[in-house]
Design goal:
Two copies of one chain form a homodimer. Chain A is built from 28 helices and twelve strands. By secondary structure, chain A is mainly alpha-helical. In chain A, a hairpin with a 2-residue loop joins strand 11 and strand 12. The interface between A and B is large, with 132 and 133 residues.
């Protein structure tokens, strides 16, 4: 009958048969270990009920009735337990650390040490674990944790448990030691719904506690409002600086003219002039070098072009150097990384101060360089960096990774809010694109943050036009029914563009990674910047800043004051214009495809909108010419005679929306952003139709948008919530899980500090399930590598300084002297979540997605069957996708290319599954 | 050693000690039961490994490696298993139902019967359960189900499993019997990531399957677009009809005048007249009775008042009679019920056709009656009824309660969209207020549905003004910094109003329920309608329709054409106006509080907005007077001289937003709705501030908004997702769960059909956990009352017609003859989700909330500890809230008042927890 011997017999000798542990004579006379153990799970199949009185309470075991009898008898048992340990209660009352003291406390010298070597901070015995207990979150089961390592996944459940415990401490600050008073030790009424812990009788402490909670709740608001203010101010500064630097490439505001200042942009310099062409203060570089005003000439053109080129390349290189020197995470748009972080992954320094500074400065330089990149996506990253900065002011948020992510999700909205002047669009962007957990209250917080930022930007008014964004427009005319047809074409074009762009961009990225002969990132940036300048300068539409271009493409001719691109003058509606627009779109496509992915801050939203707007405007001009030449055509009958029937600007905005939908695969956010840009419901229907078609066509190319493609390319461990992008293969979870025969599992007892250290050395796995004994494999818990390593390290150092041969165990050992043994239970997740092994993979995936787990254990009737980690799931989902696409390919083949992924990704998992590792590590008894 | 005898020894005799089942000589020679059983969980603690070969495969056991050995040996075992049952494989190949045939199939006569009495449709043996298997969802574990009863909770996991199986069948329609081919019977590579099921080699079937899936996916869109069209049209019809009926109370469009038609509303009748007062066609009742035009006189006033009263009461009574006679669910706003339904509860007929018709007609009558009620909330209900109507066209959605709820969540947005002309607001309303599960794709679907409805409404243009809503406004001026102060006051007032209104309304509701002497609902409606008419008629502001009033209160004086309330004429800014406005607000408060809850279709949104607008306008006029009289006051310095500095209309809209936030506790949706009503970002900041303050102040009164209060009042089983409204008490789940000693549990074997029927008769519980045997209590599964009752009933009728003494069991019985015994496993949830009993209540609640469970079982190391149902959780959450509020009160005391809750609510739960029921039902052996 080996079952009854599970965790008593393995005390450093082999567990042969029933041990002597049940013999009361064996119990040591140590006062500290006066605990009894009715730890029923070990004896669940033992019908020697009469032995129970000899075993005491296990302090880590909650108040369960004995599971091996259906007679209700917990009441007398509780009382017996209570009466049988008066010494413990007295010591508990005498100590100021009463609620943290337990009956097997280590000697005071050990307790005072910085290492939390005493096995548990709180006694969860029935009655003693009252609701007013202190911060004893590890007693809930998930165990104690050391800080997360970089590039590991967070445990949402653990973080929320921590937060709850903190809240509880806040609520009950006035009665912190209530749990140890003897009056509360009486057992609760057996079938409980107990009185909840929140009733306070005295009013003053209640008021104080109320105020404390209010202050606590207001922290999130302070962070978000400060972030909103900072983001609005930063966005304004970036707008002004970009404007100035962008104009500097063409000329400067001459200080010699009245009111002229070198630091003024062209718009500011020429403020008051209706036509910027005759502005007195603004001097182009050609004029400055040639020493004369006005006129043209090839020489001037070359001089100005050379300045444009040199300055553009200089700005780009400066941005690249900033990124390389100060914060590598400032590169790129940041949205793929942000999605991963919000999905529950630790990336240290990604939201740091240096990243914030570098990204802001680098963004100004990169945008000013004239390359085909935007500031919209990076602004979201900047917004999250700001929020993270303010989060640091409040440890209660800063120390909780889950709450931090809630606040960051909310703050992300302010980035899009200032980028497009669209606060609602920002909230929906965060909801649709970025966030993982987005509770209702986050939506409101997000909205407030986004509005604050938009208001601040409006107060700064960086464009001196009252507009939040350069390309905000209002249309005076509505659309006609027949125009739905070209709008549908634009939608389809947008989808095709999106699909092709993602393919091209990813191919460039892969090539760049594989081509080892390529020069360093800064040189790459210089080359692309040079190429961009060479292509941009001669091209009428591409020479200007993207936002200027988009603004002019969007605008209605009747409202355009400054027609610098000649889109509205007489004869602009010609085949030549159309060809030039489409030519610019094609060139921009290639430039954007090689630019997005360089090591500079660079977004993809604005270039995409520009390309879409160029195409849309071209289609609009085609329609305009057609309508003008054939006004009698049946479709054009609805046009009123002497009024322009077609507004090409509306085609541009619909083209931009369609292109954006094709590239990012967002839907609602894009429509809402465009709605807020145009300020009227009029064009929502065509935008909606175009966006929907674009998404459908794009999805036919690939299910992943540009951000998801980059997540996949970088092998970020992001578990997509939507089944659309990542279909879950339909199979039993047992086919995926690492079976127990392939796992390194630990037995409950029979270890020494040295043997555990040896296991850690021998196996790279990130965690170990703990089972009762090798034959029964009853699951007891799960201990992560980090916690195990930390405890072992701490135990062998002073103050404990345990020798390597010290016995270590994961289950209650009534014979063990706590001074000379190591109880690892406080560091073990004693209530790991389990599933039956015959459940489907879908259910397991929804556990990971909805509950935010890191691992789930498969258990059939108490017996461990296997383990599934977040990585396994990620691997299966992505591998499945790959094989679905290139059917016949070996699974996993497509996953090897992730060279940019920092080493250590997935480092929290149990280890490579295919390695034929020894299955018996830790089984000294076999 | 009783453990090894768990489920073999209890075959209708007492399970004393080890049974004879392990004796190979005991096995019958029956060919059908040639199965072997390595059903490891039963023998997990049995070290008699050598006996294994004698026991065959259990067909319901998935491909797990044997859990009692860590040596990798499943490969040889699989092969042995494969070779040892050639007869089975041959029969499988021979039968066209191969994948559904199992080795213990009942005789064909039984299989052909309509009752699915054969125990399992699919064989899940290793290899045989390939990914391409047919619709065998019950094999995944949750078991087969009969249809949900009315007023029970749905099982989200089960529904999504069903949907997945349907999808899988769609994908693999071309190779449905792949699973039974011998080649796939070879075991998968041991540590698997298997090739996913989606790779299709031939292109034509792939194309067909692709088209089939596209058609399948388009069903949702068809439903939503049809719903959008219908909702838009219905809303337009309701608007026109309400307008006409409302005007009929005052007069009629005289057919004697040129172009006059009796069916025209006043606006339509007077179309073309600038001032409606001099409209020729419109005849008031006074004029009609007195036979003369124009003029006043007390007699005329009385005659018109009497007509107003009689018609108003008639309309209201008609609405009440409609509701009583045709659809009782058409009463009230419908939003509390809708929340409950979307949260996963079955309410038959709540979304039926009769409800749709009754609610639409009743709404017209109720709104026209002039009572203080709105059509906004009911329109959401109408929208969901429309969607439900179209859902019936597509069985694949209609038969899946989870998908149906996704579509309904999406469709709900169209209701708010047409009510406020605010499609984005509608989506956010659905997201914030209504929905439980709202995946990303639902947001887009919701948006499309809402936009379609808004477009249709715009096309109908029911108000002939181009506006979607009567009270859409545009402000020409902006606000000044000092105005934030009155806006803050309005926010606080809104919160106070909201808190008081909810209290008053709930008190009226409770009184109405408790006062048994009250007349029937129709008489109540008549009395309230009469009272309303008597109060409304003499009051200048209250006589008109609410929407007219709100429209005039919102509007800016400089843009008002028709100042019928005299708010803009010279001298309107007087103390008299202020008093009249506030007086109207107070009267309206009481009328609305007694009206909301009557048995007629009635929303609370518009009355609330009207009350808020009345107050807001009053505050605006106060500010206006103050600024006019003291233009030199320091705060007013920012006012420009000759322009009106204060726009009282903006105060009205902010007051309305604040009142709405106070009553409903929504935030984002209200701001977005108001933003869409005003069409500019200008007033978003003050609205935001007012809404936020109002919510905070309101939350100080009670955490629940009006809809949540009604949900609670009616005791609907809605599990709130937000922790803010329902704090979860911090306690171990084991304190809440029904312990095993209080449960009625069934053993795996030892039952007869008659004994099970007797248990069903004796205990009202809605489900029974199934355990191995009374001493070990290893959890095997859970069977619901409905399924158990159905199976027992079916088994005793032809074609099976089993006698009552037939043996029935829940575990594999190698000795049982399937023809003469009843295997209940297919109807049992064989993989019920479990938690360790020491986990905290929070974790259990997140299981219910995030995974959508109906019950969770607590298991420690395989041993059943207890059960927690959704009802228990609901009970604890609501009881805890109650005790927190009225601290000291016995928990549950506040829950007894639910007399309006239909009988049978919570009927799916395991039964009342406090009843001292026999614990031993079903234990024939004890």
């Amino acid at each position: 009958m080996p079952i009854s011997a599970i965790n008593y017999g393995a005390s450093s000798s082999s567990d042969s048969g029933a041990s002597a542990a049940h013999d009361p004579a064996n119990r040591p006379g140590d006062g500290n270990s006066s605990a009894d153990d009715p730890y029923a799970h070990d004896d669940a199949h033992d019908d020697a009920h009469d032995e129970l009185d000899l075993l005491g309470d296990d302090p880590l075991q909650p108040d369960l009735s004995s599971p091996f009898s259906f007679k209700r008898k917990q009441k007398p048992r509780h009382i017996t337990g209570f009466l049988s340990r008066p010494a413990r209660l007295i010591s508990a009352l005498a100590s100021p650390f009463a609620s943290r003291a337990s009956h097997d406390i280590p000697p005071p010298a050990q307790r005072l040490g910085s290492l939390p070597t005493h096995p548990h901070d709180n006694d969860t015995h029935p009655g003693a674990s009252g609701p007013g207990a202190g911060p004893d979150y590890h007693a809930e089961g998930p165990g104690r944790r050391v800080a997360y390592e970089d590039l590991t996944a967070i445990d949402w459940i653990f973080e929320y448990t921590k937060e709850r415990q903190r809240q509880r401490a806040l609520h009950h600050h006035t009665t912190p030691h209530r749990t140890s008073s003897p009056s509360s030790s009486s057992p609760p009424p057996p079938p409980p719904p107990p009185t909840p812990p929140t009733s306070q009788s005295s009013t003053l402490p209640a008021l104080l506690s109320h105020i404390r909670r209010l202050l606590d709740a207001s922290q999130v608001w302070v962070v978000l409002i400060l972030s909103g203010l900072a983001v609005g101010a930063l966005a304004a500064a970036i707008d002004v600086a970009t404007d100035w630097l962008g104009d500097i490439k063409h000329g400067f505001c001459s200080p010699s003219v009245d009111g002229g200042r070198f630091y003024l942009s062209k718009t500011a310099c020429c403020y008051g002039y209706d036509d910027e062409a005759i502005c007195a203060g603004w001097t182009t570089w050609g004029e400055a070098f040639a020493g004369r005003r006005g006129g043209g000439g090839a020489g001037l053109w070359v001089v100005e072009g050379a300045t444009y080129l040199v300055l553009g390349v200089t700005f780009a290189v400066a941005a690249a150097v900033l990124v390389r020197e100060f914060a590598v995470y400032a590169r790129h748009s940041g949205i793929p990384e942000l999605k991963t972080v919000l999905g529950g992954f630790i990336m240290k320094r990604f939201l740091g101060v240096w990243t914030l500074v570098t990204k802001s400065l680098g963004l100004v330089l990169a945008v000013a360089s004239g390359m085909w990149l935007g500031k919209e996506g990076p602004l979201v990253h900047v917004a999250c960096c700001c929020a993270n900065l303010f989060i640091k002011l409040f440890p209660s948020i800063n120390n909780n990774e889950a709450r931090k992510r809630e606040v960051l999700s909310a703050a992300a909205a302010s980035g899009i809010s200032v980028a497009f002047g669209s606060p609602i669009g920002g909230v929906l962007f965060s909801l649709e694109q970025l966030s993982y957990y987005f509770p209702d209250k986050t939506m409101w917080q997000s909205f407030v943050c986004a509005m604050t930022a938009a208001m601040v930007l409006q107060a700064f008014d960086p464009f001196r036009s009252g507009k939040l964004v350069l390309y905000q427009v209002t249309y005076s005319s509505s659309w006609h029914g027949f125009e739905l047809f070209p709008f549908i074409i634009l939608g389809i074009l947008g989808g095709i563009y999106g699909g092709l762009f993602i393919k091209a961009n990813m191919r460039v990225a892969k090539w760049r990674k594989s081509a080892s002969w390529l020069p360093g990132p800064v040189v790459q940036v210089a080359v692309v910047a040079c190429l961009t300048a060479l292509i941009n300068y001669p091209n009428h539409y591409m020479r200007a800043q993207n936002s200027d271009l988009v603004s002019n493409l969007f605008s209605e001719c009747s409202q355009t004051l400054d027609d610098r691109f000649g889109l509205c003058h007489e004869g602009a509606a010609s085949a030549g214009t159309i060809i030039l627009l489409l030519f610019a779109a094609v060139l921009a496509f290639f430039l954007a495809a090689i630019t997005f992915g360089l090591q500079i801050p660079a977004g993809i939203i604005l270039p995409t909108m520009a390309i879409g707007a160029l195409t849309g405007r071209a289609v609009g001009i085609i329609m305009e010419i057609w309508q003008r030449n054939h006004p009698a055509f049946i479709a054009f009958r609805s046009c009123e005679p002497d009024i322009p029937c077609i507004t090409p600007g509306t085609y541009a905005i619909i083209g931009a929306a369609a292109a954006l939908a094709g590239v990012t695969r967002m839907t609602v956010s894009i429509v809402v952003i465009m709605f807020e840009l145009t300020g009227a419901l009029t064009y929502v229907l065509p935008i909606m139709v175009a966006v929907m078609l674009s998404k459908w066509v794009g999805d036919a190319f690939s299910r992943r948008g540009i951000y998801e493609s980059w997540i996949r390319f970088n092998e970020y461990p992001f578990l997509d919530l939507s089944e659309e992008t990542t279909p879950i293969p339909d199979m039993p979870a047992s086919q995926i899980m690492t079976r127990i025969d392939d796992l390194v599992v630990l037995t409950a007892a029979g270890h020494t500090v040295a043997s555990l250290a040896a296991i850690l050395d021998a196996h790279p796995h990130r965690g170990f399930p703990v089972i009762s004994d090798p034959r029964d494999a009853i699951l007891l818990g799960y201990i992560s590598r980090a916690e195990l390593a930390y405890t072992l390290h701490a135990a062998t150092r002073p103050p404990r300084a345990l020798p390597p041969e010290t016995e270590a165990f994961f289950a209650h050992q009534p014979l063990a002297d706590p001074r000379s043994t190591l109880d690892l239970r406080p560091w073990m997740d004693q209530t790991p979540l389990t599933l039956p092994s015959r459940c489907r993979l879908h259910l397991a995936v929804s556990y990971f997605q909805k509950l935010g787990l890191r691992y789930v254990l498969f258990v059939d009737r108490g017996v461990l069957q296997g383990l599934l980690t977040k990585k396994d799931v990620w691997y299966v989902l992505n591998g499945a996708e790959e094989t679905r696409r290139t059917s016949g390919m070996q699974e996993g083949e497509g996953l090897g290319a992730g060279a940019t992924a920092p080493p250590g990704f997935w480092s929290y998992v149990t280890g490579p599954r295919r390695r034929p590792l020894s299955q018996l590590a830790g089984y000294r008894s076999l």
